[in-house]
Amino acid sequence: GAVVSQHPSRVICKSGTSVKIECRSLDFQATTMFWYRQFPKKSLMLMATSNEGSKATYEQGVEKDKFLINHASLTLSTLTVTSAHPEDSSFYICSARPISSGEQYFGPGTRLTVT
Amino acid sequence: AQSVTQPDIHITVSEGASLELRCNYSYGATPYLFWYVQSPGQGLQLLLKYFSGDTLVQGIKGFEAEFKRSQSSFNLRKPSVHWSDAAEYFCAVEADKLIFGTGTRLQVFP
Q1: Contact residues on chain A for B98, CB-CB shorter than 8 A
Q2: Which of A2, A102, B1, B31 has its CA 20 to 30 A from that of B46?
Q3: What is the reported pLDDT for B2?
Q4: How many C-beta atoms surround the C-beta of residue B91 within 10 A?
């Protein structure tokens, strides 16, 4: 139980285009989902916290107009990287917190490469 | 502000040897503490967690960790390492959000 999926697992896009990453909780409902970014050989940095049906809360230094987050249902959150640039290339990981638990369950991550 | 320090960036051990990965945290109250493992290109898997109670916590894959309040530490241990344990290990503390350490890369030689 408590499986979180991400799609796509890898994506390559051209500079200036937008890309959407999906995060789904497969066997539980999550009122809260989190988006993290991981640079090579670095730790995970929280980008934003999204609550179902409300606006996401972004961490300091994260551009909300560039990283659009939508949490439209209790099992799906999306991260859209708008007007992507090579410096946006990174490993993006989502996590989901079940309604009944304080624990976060992590997705397998999405490798974004912007050329 | 809360923070997590993992002093060892890279550790190499022989298969069958014991392992200890260090983690120190900074937090004003009693923290929620976690250890995660990440295989290359993968997400994170929870190894174990400490919320309260017994300070020696047992986790999956034969790992354990001990919470020592006096030392602000939560070191991860395993008595006998297997080659499949080679991965990146992250310690984390949760207050209003999860704060991760910078990770320790474990390499296992046969």
Answers
A1: 34, 44, 46, 104
A2: B1
A3: 82
A4: 29
